[in-house]
Design a protein that fits this description.
210 residues; alpha/beta; Rossmann fold; eight-stranded mixed β-sheet; 29% helix; globular
Length: 210
């Protein structure tokens, strides 16, 4: 955390939701709120994951307020793991309470990218979603939501070439029917070891281009 990080406790369907909110850089109003989902809770995933923190830093550096949160059953968040269903409700609860209106960005890593896709699918028709960032999308393990065609130009999908947790082929199989581009990091692993600065730069480039 830094001096502009705020600890918050929200109310979700399963009880308290633990949240960290990173304020946009000082000097101008935030462009909007980015809500970021973490990897699988049953395999050590938390809002302090390094990829999740990298996504938050990228959004903050581009003028967005970044919100990270722990899914139910993780850290101080109450409840138990619900295989994605309740986790989508957790993400929707965070959006409803911390970004009830205005420009919104949805992002996630691994299991969190799956939940982010389902959240975006639910909100797309009613919210101004400016960006969707999916990293290490767990397409081999979960039914990742297809994205509306009009969302494609606002979406960044990043995957490591040598991801041994979620094979690149699985993400391509999900993306191919949608003609959705996938940015592949050469030599990249699932957690982007040694390549987090590159991941951040890819996200920043996407945000600034938008």
């Amino acid at each position: 955390m830094n001096s502009r990080t705020e600890k918050i406790q929200l109310k979700g369907a399963a009880g308290a939701i633990e949240v960290l909110r990173d304020a946009a850089a000082a000097g101008s109003p935030a462009l909007g709120v980015a809500v970021i989902a973490h990897p699988h809770p049953l395999f050590g995933g938390t809002m302090d994951n390094k990829v999740v923190q990298t996504l938050a830093r990228a959004f903050v550096s581009c003028g967005w307020t970044a919100v990270r949160f722990n899914f139910r059953g993780v850290g101080a968040s109450e409840g138990t793991h619900d295989e994605g269903r309740g986790e989508r409700d957790d993400m929707l609860a965070v959006v409803e309470q911390l970004a009830p209106e205005g420009p919104l960005a949805i992002a996630g890593f691994s299991f969190g990218a799956f939940v982010a896709s389902c959240t975006a699918e639910k909100l797309w028709a009613t919210r101004d979603i400016r960006h969707l960032v999916l990293v290490g999308t767990a397409a081999s393990r979960f039914s990742v939501a297809a994205l509306p065609a009009e969302a494609h130009e606002r979406t960044l999908v990043v995957h490591g070439e040598h991801d041994d947790t979620v094979p690149l082929a699985a993400v391509m199989d999900w993306a191919r029917p949608q003609s959705l581009p996938v940015t592949v990091v050469p030599g990249g692993s699932h957690f982007f070891h040694g390549q987090l600065p590159l991941l951040k730069s890819l996200v920043v480039r996407h945000l600034r281009a938008g």
